[in-house]
Amino acid sequence: MGVLSFLFSSSIGRKLVMAVTGVSLIAFLVVHCAINACVFFMDGGATFNAAAEFMAHNLFIRLAEVGLIGGLLIHIVQGLSLTLNNMKKRNNKYGSSPKRTNSTWYSRSMGLLGTILLLFLVMHLKDFWIVSRFDAQGGLTESKTLYHFMLEVFTNPVPVTLYVLGCISLAYHLLHGFQSAFQTFGLNHPILTPMIKTLGAAFSIIVPLVFASIPVVIHLGLIK
Amino acid sequence: MKHSMKVNLQVWRQKNTQAQGNFENYSVETNPDMSFLEMFDVLNEQLIHDGKEPVAFDHDCREGICGMCSMVINGNPHGPKQAITTCQLHMRSFNDGDTIVVEPWRANAFPVIKDLSVNRSSFDRIIASGGFVSVNTGNAVDANNILIPKDIADEAFEAATCIGCGACVSACINASAMLFVGAKVTQLSLLPQGQSERQSRVVAMVNQMDAEGFGACTNTGACSAECPKGIPLSVISTLNREYTKAKLNGI
Ligand code: SF4
Ligand code: FES
């Protein structure tokens, strides 16, 4: 541990951990988004179910999942503790609030956005992940696949609204987090850095948009 | 052009570090050509004339190079204009009759000494922790003995223009000092003279920065936007890189 203890003690080490876990969560989002997008094949969920089935039973994926959950937990715990710590660095608040043109609101609200995402995640895992992974919890059957299950959840407008709100928080969290991670890695390049910023912005809009479109489209009955 | 103007001030008054402070209202007859600090001089003369305690504020060079004039003006460190210090701000940037709120840098690592004057010794201790730079003693060496490419010299110089004012800390939602520390580390790690202590220096300075109670950077960019010298955010990524490399080398 010796050499690596700075990852949990120093300000720079800690944000490095946020960046590394953040980027692995971004990689996970790519896979997740690709699988979700399978619903747009309009084949009654056949492709989607096949992909979901593969993810649930492939050993390599299950192992990666353990790593992912570990990374996610570290991202959450480290993020919350950093945010709470940072809030203790200015006991006397400013009396005047400037027009905050010096930074974006979402870059200043990563803790808040992250907390919203955490709440969303609890709901989301309860809705889908638990059913798809633990057969004992109601479970999936031949006649009731994950796809059917999803159609059922999104008939109700409440989850649809919550999912869209969750995706909006995700978009803003990514909009700052994506490029911020590379800044933390110390990458500062005249050509690469602007490219990463553009890529990050595109990713932050497209991925949450694909995610959010699914509950909406299902609710409107556009896919069955 | 009208040559007198009146502004209403809400100024933070605080007797000492322990005391509870509060805003006091004043109105000052000034003119558009005065600097912000000259307007404060007028206010203080007025206060002294009335037998009241003048407002304590820091200043020295009054030409944007010493970094002393720490005032948060209407919520912006060094006022509403970009890339200037408070002493370079003029009353023509405001309108007749404006109400202007003036308060000190606020961060636990910069305790208020009195009114608008804050203690920035934490910055001095960070600099001191960076230690020395090894140089040969003896006869003065020829100025061109060490060759430094122009682009490196320019980048190092840009970082070296940091005047240590602390506006970056005051603007940051996390009260982080990373722009300041990044500027110092970048400057010395770019130049040949800074190589011998390159790794130990960055680790010592970051340790000191954390120990002084500055927050952790979340890359909001507010520091660079408010910096009177326009120190770029890239110095923080250099700092991250230098620090991580040194730590992975076991320093
Ligand atoms: S980086 Fe800019 S704002 Fe911070 S101390 Fe240096 S000159 Fe002042
Ligand atoms: S008084 Fe020296 S920079 Fe303003």
Word description of this protein:
The complex is a heterodimer of chains A (224) and B (251). Chain A is mainly α and 224 residues long. Chain A has one domain (2-92, 105-219): 3 helical TM bundles of succinate and fumarate reductases (Up-down Bundle). In chain A, 71% of the residues lie in helices and 0% in strands. Chain A has helices at 6-9, 11-37, 46-57, 59-86, 110-133, 146-153, 157-184, 192-219. The longest helix of chain A has 28 residues, at 59-86. With 251 residues, chain B is α+β, with helices and mostly antiparallel strands. Chain B folds into 2 domains: 5-114, Ubiquitin-like (UB roll) (Roll); 120-133 and 146-248, Alpha-helical ferredoxin (Fumarate Reductase Iron-sulfur Protein, Chain B, domain 2, Orthogonal Bundle), CATH 1.10.1060.10. Helices cover 34% and strands 13% of the residues of chain B. Chain B has a 5-stranded mixed sheet with strand order 2-1-5-3-4. A two-stranded antiparallel ribbon of chain B has the order 6-7. In chain B, a hairpin with an 8-residue loop joins strand 1 (5-13) and strand 2. The mean pLDDT of chain B is 96. Bound molecules: iron/sulfur cluster and FE2/S2 (inorganic) cluster.
Q: Helices, strands, pairings?
A:
The complex is a heterodimer of chains A (224) and B (251).
Chain A: H1 6-9, H2 11-37, H3 46-57, H4 59-86, H5 110-133, H6 146-153, H7 157-184, H8 192-219
Chain B: E1 5-13, E2 22-30, H1 36-49, E3 72-73, E4 76-77, E5 99-103, E6 112-114, E7 117-118, H2 121-129, H3 150-160, H4 167-171, H5 178-190, H6 198-211, H7 222-226, H8 234-248
Parallel strand pairs in B: 1-5
Antiparallel strand pairs in B: 1-2, 3-4, 3-5, 6-7
Helix pairs in contact in B: 2-6, 3-5, 5-6, 5-8, 6-8
The complex binds iron/sulfur cluster and FE2/S2 (inorganic) cluster.
